[in-house]
Amino acid sequence: MGNRFPLELQGQESRRGAGRAQTATPPEPVVSRPAKTVQSHPKWGRHIMIRTLASLALLAAACLPALADDSEDAADMNDIFVQGLASGATPQTVNEKWTCAVFWNVWTEFAEKDLGAEFVALLDPELGTGPARAASAHWEREAVLAMGMGMGELDAETELYLEQQTESAWDLAEGVVWGDDYTYLFILGECAAPPAQ
Hints:
This protein is mainly alpha-helical and 197 residues long. The protein is 66% helix and 0% strand. Mean pLDDT is 76; it is low at 1-23, 36-41 and 57-68.
């Protein structure tokens, strides 16, 4: 059967014939045999199963701290939001009202896409999607009323301001994702819509 030796015997054979002239022999054709599968080798099957279970256990262990981190992050975010609420600041100028409308609008998109519903559920209820949309609509109405015009009547300067504020909101939202800057939440606290009358 040609050169089909176990590895240790192949090494011995090559040392024995090292001083002799060797003639090249063509390899024998490989006889077609059914491929060995995991099922035909119970040891391999158990080994793969153990590796798979170990990998799953490591993944689960890695996720547990992430869940704890989510709770801690949510608590930190809630604290910053409450600080913004407690600051007593409320939008007075038209631009401040527009800023609040934009920041709440961006929050609704950002919270759904980047934070996810499970994480948002850990946050203060006012940071939920419904209340955020209501706060955005409130400040938009207030800004339009203060300007004395409708949304379709915005001037170029106001539209440019809204674009800049939208970009600023998304930049601050990035800090929230990375967990290194929660200024966005403080601004939302300052921009909380007053309780319905």
